[in-house]
Specification:
Layout lengths: L4 E5 L1 H8 L7 H10 L3 H6 L9 H10 L1 H26 L5 E6 L7 E6 L2 E7 L8 H20 L7 H18 L5 H6 L5 H9 L1 H11 L6 H5 L13 H14 L5 H4 L3 H14 L1
Parallel strand pairs: 1-2, 2-4
Antiparallel strand pairs: 3-4
Helix pairs in contact: 1-5, 5-6, 6-7, 7-12, 7-14, 10-14, 12-14
Length: 278
């Protein structure tokens, strides 16, 4: 039995709001006309859509309404294509819930629970260009399926949990979309090769440090956020690159589904072994 994606498109609602122009208190109108009617959604996305930045971000987003409508069409197609790819690989048998929306420029895609149901979100204002829009949707869909299978109770900011789930998502997109460059799987763009080379050059140090920090909950942001050109001991978002290397090492050619059901202790043990082996 194949899953079927149910996609809620909130870009149309934003377009109606934006069509009234940029006059008056945009942030107040946005809250009354857009956020409050979809309170459940915005409660679920508060970590990725921060209302405090609305006054600064909304004028630019309103001005992009035509572009955002077109981006919404691409987002819907990307989700459907990601579902097709993953269904062929895994035989999905659970309904896929997704929301296409205009955020506030803080994230391009994420998974959060709405009424207890893991839901894929695409922020169209940050959506990458083709073919990386499909890579993004597939990356997030892997997270959604992983959450359904085993990670619903995993901590949000523990290094081993993040290395495993982000590494698995990148491993999966690379296997299912092999024609896309490593830059595309890691940054949803074509211009990350210098960053990749930097990570490769630091591989031994990254592995050693990750081994020491696997169970920490206070440093995950250093591994999974930051600009591509961030200086220092940890390149920005280097946890995605290291996680990918580790999942390639752990899974090899084994089916992706093998890793989806592992508990956090099982996943952490495999990460520790892979890191120790170098």
């Amino acid at each position: 039995m194949n899953a079927m994606a149910s996609i809620l498109d909130l870009v149309t609602n934003f377009d109606d709001f934006a069509g009234q122009g940029r006059g008056g208190d945009l942030a107040d109108r946005w809250w009354r006309e857009f956020v409050k009617p979809h309170a459940e959604i915005f409660t679920a996305v508060e970590s990725w859509v921060d209302p405090k930045v609305a006054p600064d971000r909304l004028p630019g987003l309103v001005a992009r309404r035509t572009e955002l409508r077109a981006a919404a069409e691409r987002a819907r197609f990307a989700i459907q294509e990601a579902e097709r790819l993953l269904t062929e690989q895994l035989g999905l048998d659970h309904p896929i819930h997704a929301v296409v929306m205009v955020g506030l420029g803080q994230a391009n895609g994420w998974v959060s629970s709405v009424q207890g149901e893991p839901t894929l979100f695409i922020g169209v204002e940050q959506m990458p260009k083709p073919p990386f829009d499909i890579v993004l949707a597939l990356h997030e869909l892997v997270h959604l399926v992983h959450m359904l299978r085993s990670t619903h109770d995993w901590p949000a900011d523990r290094v081993d949990a993040d290395l495993f789930r982000e590494g698995l998502a990148v491993h999966a997109t690379a296997r299912l979309l092999p024609e896309v460059s490593p830059s595309g799987h890691l940054w949803f763009s074509t211009d990350a090769q210098a960053w990749i080379d930097r990570c490769k050059g630091m591989a031994a140090r990254l592995r050693s440090r990750a081994l020491q920090e696997l169970d920490r909950t206070d440093v995950s942001g250093q591994w999974f956020s930051g600009a591509i050109d961030r200086p220092g001991e940890l390149p920005g978002r280097c946890g995605y690159w290291l996680g990918w290397q580790l999942l390639d090492q752990i899974l090899g050619p084994e089916p992706i589904e093998t890793a989806l059901g592992w508990s956090l202790p099982e996943a952490a043990a495999r990460l520790r072994t892979a890191l120790s082996q170098g």
